[in-house]
């Protein structure tokens, strides 16, 4: 797609606070999304990520703090002046308009002076239909589309206005697992083509880590950590981030990823190793999940081992094994 | 007894009971709805088409019809505006007093129409609160057309709002927000997104509101003063004719209202079906 002249911008959020009633949704949130970056807001429900996205879009206003697009203060600008593309969680397609008219909407409501003529609108919409591979469905109504198709129409509609910034609220939240994975990759490729600063909200850590250039992990209205996926995964700032980005189990008072738990039948007993009984084996999937109970403290330990290793060990429920941790982390909180 | 076996027993009511209940329902419907409605038309045309036509086109009847149309013509647009504003406020915003507003909108449904009429007499009548001031300025509301309009607006106030509130609540504000983010002005949003989504519900409210405006008797009766040719609406005219033992004329004019009722019912069915479609 040709660069449509809408120059891309950076987004900066400075010290945003927001409360609904007595509930503080955002507590002093600051972040910066660089020009052309795909940024994920990751957090459990109620962490304030959607509220933050709506404030960036101008659909809600902060109690204090400012929003800047390219260093320019946009805090008081109305939503319709901000030139953002917003993809709603449940798509919010106009139910009484065809796919074509949905995509054309943003162009048709422009003031007469800047409104493109009918021919240009058609060209533009057809181009977007091609981009989302839905050209044959142009005359369908939203209710006649599948979830994945609606999602793509919502995205095309947002892109039609050549937004400076693209905001997506749980873009894959309502889709089934297979379509999710497909669309995820598609969005990543599309973003690389468009090169527009984009922020998407998700509660799925796998999605955030796979798709985004950078991730902010939110909890209870605060940002716990911001960084590239590898950065936050490998050096989490605290136990919450560690736990949210992957499974974890408590071992000798430290946090360990289940795949970092080593199970052996060695009689040799190294420092930090303990004896445990196998309580449960889940051997469906790529990795085998093993639940164990320590002999000395009766604590539960979760482990994940490869199928190969599982065959090698030939463990059964009730077996007595040696357990140690390869990497573990201590967080002071 | 298990749930399934009980359900089977429920489904297999004895035939005589099933037929008996259906028969009873049909009989009651016939006795209380079909028969009276038919009686209106039979009575109306009792003395032939010419007499019916004369009764309906007679001068006082004509002025009653015109007045009813005038009152309806003012009431319905007003209630469309009020209804839209009220529904918008209640469905789109959370605020203190929202439930109070919701209850206030329902008051006309709960209050007897006679009381509704009396309220206006108490406020605008010669002995009422504003009576002296209105008298000084030579403005007449009670026993005049403005009073009839006020009373009708009051009685029919809930129809449009009540129809739109649940519809707008179930549709949510996502599409409207999407329109705004895409650059639409408030008016464009309303015209292109809100209105098309609620149009069948709105029309349904308008149909009910129209039928009630044309047919309202109680409240209008109190404020109208029954001045022939001036402040008589169709229902009031029917009553006068009836009280004068002019049955054929009374039923002839009443047949007009009955036609309105039947048409309303048909429209209501069609619109209910369309609204349900829009809600999905």
Please provide a written account of the structure.
The complex is a heterodimer of chains A (333) and B (280). By secondary structure, chain A is α+β, with helices and mostly antiparallel strands. Chain A contains 9 helices and 17 strands. Chain A is elongated. The radius of gyration of chain B is 24 Å and the shape is globular. Chain B starts with a helix and ends with a helix. The model of chain B has no long low-confidence stretch (mean pLDDT 86). Classes of the chains: A alpha+beta (333), B mainly alpha (280).
Task: Chart the SSEs and their pairings.
The complex is a heterodimer of chains A (333) and B (280).
Chain A: E1 11-20, E2 23-33, E3 38-42, H1 49-57, E4 64-69, E5 72-73, E6 84-87, H2 99-108, H3 118-131, H4 147-160, E7 165-169, H5 177-194, E8 197-202, H6 205-211, E9 214-219, E10 222-227, H7 229-234, H8 239-245, E11 249-251, E12 254-256, E13 261-264, E14 274-282, E15 287-294, E16 300-306, H9 307-313, E17 320-325
Parallel strand pairs in A: 3-8, 3-9, 6-7, 7-8
Antiparallel strand pairs in A: 1-2, 1-4, 4-5, 9-10, 11-12, 13-17, 14-15, 14-17, 15-16
Helix pairs in contact in A: 2-3, 2-4, 3-4
Chain B: H1 3-11, H2 15-44, H3 49-57, H4 59-92, H5 98-110, H6 113-124, H7 131-136, H8 145-156, H9 158-171, H10 174-181, H11 186-215, H12 218-224, H13 234-243, H14 247-279
Helix pairs in contact in B: 2-14, 3-14, 4-8, 4-9, 4-11, 6-8, 6-12, 8-12, 9-11, 10-11, 11-14, 13-14
């Amino acid at each position: 797609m040709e660069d449509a002249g809408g120059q891309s911008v950076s987004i900066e959020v400075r010290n945003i606070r927001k409360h609904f009633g007595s509930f503080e949704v955002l507590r002093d949130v600051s972040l910066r999304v660089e020009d052309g970056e795909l940024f994920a807001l990751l957090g459990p429900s109620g962490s304030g990520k959607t509220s933050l996205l709506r404030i960036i879009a101008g659909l809600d206003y902060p109690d204090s703090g400012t929003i800047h697009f390219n260093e320019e203060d946009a805090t008081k600008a109305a939503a319709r002046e901000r030139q953002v593309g917003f993809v709603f969680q449940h798509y919010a397609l106009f139910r009484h308009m065809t796919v074509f008219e949905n995509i054309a909407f943003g162009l048709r409501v422009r003031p007469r002076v800047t409104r493109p003529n009918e021919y240009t609108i058609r060209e533009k919409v057809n181009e977007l239909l091609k981009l989302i591979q839905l050209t044959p469905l142009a005359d369908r109504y939203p209710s006649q589309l599948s979830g994945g198709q609606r999602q793509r129409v919502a995205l095309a509609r947002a892109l039609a206005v050549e937004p400076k910034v693209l905001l997506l609220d749980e873009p894959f939240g309502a889709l089934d697992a297979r379509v999710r994975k497909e669309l995820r990759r598609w969005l990543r490729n599309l973003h690389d083509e468009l090169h527009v600063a984009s922020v998407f909200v998700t509660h799925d850590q796998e999605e955030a880590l796979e798709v985004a250039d950078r991730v902010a992990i939110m909890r209870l209205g605060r940002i716990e950590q911001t960084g590239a996926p590898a950065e936050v995964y490998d050096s989490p700032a605290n136990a919450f981030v560690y736990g949210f980005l992957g499974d974890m189990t408590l071992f000798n008072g430290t946090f360990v990823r289940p795949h970092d738990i080593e199970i052996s039948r060695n009689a040799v007993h190294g420092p930090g190793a303990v004896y445990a009984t196998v309580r449960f084996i889940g051997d469906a999937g790529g990795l085998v999940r093993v639940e164990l109970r320590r002999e000395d403290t009766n604590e539960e330990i979760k482990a994940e081992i490869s199928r190969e290793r599982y065959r090698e060990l030939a463990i059964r429920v009730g077996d007595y094994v040696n357990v140690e941790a390869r990497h573990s982390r201590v967080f002071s909180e | 007894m298990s749930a399934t076996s009980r359900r089977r027993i429920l489904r297999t009511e004895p035939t005589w009971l099933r037929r008996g209940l259906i028969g009873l329902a049909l009989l009651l419907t016939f006795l209380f709805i079909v028969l009276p409605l038919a009686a209106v038309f039979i009575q109306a045309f009792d003395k032939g088409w010419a007499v019916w036509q004369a009764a309906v086109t007679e001068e006082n009847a004509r002025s009653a019809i015109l007045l009813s149309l005038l009152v309806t013509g003012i009431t319905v647009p007003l209630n469309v505006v009020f209804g839209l504003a009220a529904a918008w406020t209640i469905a789109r915003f959370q605020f203190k007093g929202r439930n109070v507003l919701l209850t206030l909108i329902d008051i006309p449904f709960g209050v007897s129409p006679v009381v509704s009429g009396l309220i206006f007499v108490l406020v605008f009548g010669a002995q009422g609160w504003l009576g002296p001031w209105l008298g000084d300025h030579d403005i007449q509301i009670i026993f005049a057309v403005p009073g009839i309009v006020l009373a009708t607006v009051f009685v029919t106030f809930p129809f449009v709002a009540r129809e739109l509130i649940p519809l707008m609540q179930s549709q949510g504000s996502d599409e409207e927000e999407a329109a705004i983010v895409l650059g639409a002005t408030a008016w464009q949003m309303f015209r292109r997104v809100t209105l098309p989504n609620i149009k069948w519900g709105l029309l349904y409210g308008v149909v009910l509101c129209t039928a009630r405006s044309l047919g309202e008797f109680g409240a209008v009766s109190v404020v109208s003063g029954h001045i022939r040719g001036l402040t008589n609406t169709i229902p009031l005219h029917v009553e006068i004719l009836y009280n004068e033992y002019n049955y054929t004329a009374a039923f002839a004019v009443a047949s007009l209202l009955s036609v309105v009722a039947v048409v309303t019912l048909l429209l209501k069915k069609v619109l209910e079906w369309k609204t349900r479609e829009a809600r999905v």
